[in-house]
Amino acid sequence: MELARFPLQRIALRVAEGIDGTLLVIILALSMLGFAALFSASLDNPGRVLNQLVSLSIALSAMWVTAQIAPQTLMRFAVPAYVFGLALLVAVALFGDVVNGARRWLNVGVTRFQPSEMMKLALPLMLAWYFHRREATLRLRDFALAALLLAVPFALIVRQPDLGTAALVGAVGFYVIFFAGLSWRVIGGAAALGVVALFPLWGMLHDYQRRRVLTLLDPTQDPLGAGYHIIQSTIAVGSGGISGKGWLNGTQAHLEFIPERHTDFIFAVYSEEFGLIGNFVLLVLYALLIGRGLVISANAATVFARLLAGSVTLMFFTYAFVNMGMVSGILPVVGVPLPFLSYGGTALLTLFIGAGVLMSVQRHRKLVQT
Amino acid sequence: MMGTAELRNYERELQQFQLRIGVAGIVMLVAFGVLVARFVFLQVVQHEHYRAKAEDNRISIVPITPNRGLITDRNGVVVARNVSGYTLEIFPRRVKSVEATIDELAELIEITPRDRARFKRLTVETRNPESLPIRTRLTDEDVAKFAANRFRYQGVEIKARLFRQYPFGDVGSHVIGYMGRVNQADQAALEQEGVDANYRGTDYIGRSGVEGTYERELHGTTGFEQVEIDAAGRGIRTLKTTPAQAGNNVVLTLDMRLQRVAETAFGERRGAMVAIEPGTGAVLALVSKPGFDLNLFVDGIDPLYWAELNNNPDRPLNNRAIAGVYPPGSTFKPFMALAALEMGKRTPKSTINDPGYFVFGDRRFRDSKPGGHGVVDLHKSIVVSSDVYYYMLANDMGIDAIAAFMKKLGLGARTGVDLQGEAAGVLPSPEWKQARFKRAEQQRWYPGETISIGIGQGYNAYTPIQLAQAMATVAANGAMYRPRVVGHIENPRSRERRSFEPELVQQVALRKEYVEFVKRAMAGVTREGTGARAFARAEYTSGGKTGTAQVIAMKQNEKYDEKKIDERHRDHSLYIAFAPLDNPIIATLVIVENGGFGARAAAPISRTVLDYYLVGKLPPGLQAATPEDEVDDDRESD
Question: Which of A302, B248, B283, B393 is least crowded, fewest Cβ atoms below 10 Å from its Cβ?
Answer without folding.
Answer: A302
